[in-house]
Design a protein that fits this description.
195 residues; 5 helices
């Protein structure tokens, strides 16, 4: 039996925009308080679920309470899923334009954005729960605001705008992050109701 949380859930990020976006997606009626902490976690290598699990276990040990960690990937189908969980480093070195140019010699410009949230209650020996959200799309030349990483090059299937060009409410309704958050929200609400 998992105990009801009395402490706030700590989202492990120093990015206030990410915290704000997550709180917006969870909605005003979400019954738990979420706050962020910039916890220095190692950059693990491996598959997104493995990375998120390892980060979550370490974060729970440091926070000694409930934690959420996020691992985001941008996967190009022509490159068998790369850059994947290493997108942060590719973006830092190449920028959005360089990421788009990586696919120049490929006909297949499709890919997907992936967000893996990992949650732990922080109790000793507690299981890490994984929530995997994905959004399929196309990698395009950069368009729109550059304030949110690789958003200018990702155009979700069924839309004419990139993430960066979209109204935030539309993006928050369809994104890889919103899909993973809604799974996490359902899980946490079930915990609260004791199901």
């Amino acid at each position: 039996m998992i105990k009801r949380m009395s402490k706030p859930i700590v989202l492990c990020t120093g990015n206030k925009n990410k915290l704000k976006e997550i709180i917006e997606i969870l909605g005003k009626d979400f019954p738990y308080k979420i706050e962020n902490q910039d916890i220095d976690l190692p950059e693990y290598q491996g598959e997104p679920e493995e990375i998120a699990t390892a980060k979550c276990e370490l974060a729970a040990e440091r926070v000694k309470g409930p934690v959420i960690v996020e691992d985001v990937s941008l996967c190009f189908n022509a490159l068998n899923g790369m850059p994947g969980p290493y997108i942060k480093w590719f973006l830092a070195k190449m920028g959005p334009s360089g990421l788009h140019r990586m696919l120049k010699s490929y006909d297949d410009k499709s890919g997907y954005a992936q967000c893996v949230f990992a949650y732990s209650s922080g109790e000793k020996g507690s299981k890490v729960h994984i929530f995997d959200g994905r959004c399929n799309g196309t990698i395009v030349e950069p368009r729109g605001s550059t304030e949110f990483g690789w958003d200018p090059i990702f155009q979700p299937d069924g839309y004419k705008e990139t993430y960066a060009e979209m109204d935030k409410k539309i993006k928050n309704g369809i994104s890889h992050r919103s899909k993973a958050i809604m799974m996490l929200k359902d899980f946490l609400l079930q915990l609260k109701s004791g199901k």
